[in-house]
Write a structure and sequence with these properties.
With 86 residues, this protein is of the alpha+beta class. It has one domain: Winged helix-like DNA-binding domain superfamily/Winged helix DNA-binding domain (Arc Repressor Mutant, subunit A, Orthogonal Bundle), CATH 1.10.10. It is 63% helix and 16% strand. Strands 1-3-2 form a 3-stranded antiparallel β-sheet. Strand 2 and strand 3 form a beta hairpin. Helix 2 crosses helix 4. The two termini are 24 Å apart. 19% of the residues are buried.
Length: 86
């Protein structure tokens, strides 16, 4: 186990908004506007959280025309969130 990498992932998931973003993205890909509506926080804040998740390799953007949708790409993160839901 790479303890530095695992710690970095857990730190990224340690913020309630980021954990909720990942949880929601596991159900369905989503763009920033939809996340703002779901979370009730400003667009700039959502974008900051997305950047952190993307920098850690947890999520990945996918362009659909002018809209960017995000999805969870790290299976370990999916497993962690599923475990936390129990």
């Amino acid at each position: 186990m790479d303890f530095k990498e695992t710690s970095s992932i857990l730190k990224a998931l340690g913020h309630p908004a980021r954990l909720e973003i990942v949880h929601n993205l596991m159900k369905d890909e989503c763009n920033v506007d939809n996340m703002v509506k779901r979370l009730g926080i400003p667009q700039s804040t959502v974008s900051q959280h997305l950047r952190i998740l993307q920098d850690r390799g947890i999520i990945s953007p996918r362009k659909q025309g002018v809209i960017t949708c995000y999805r969870v790409i790290d299976q370990r993160v999916r497993d962690i969130v599923e475990l936390l839901k129990k």
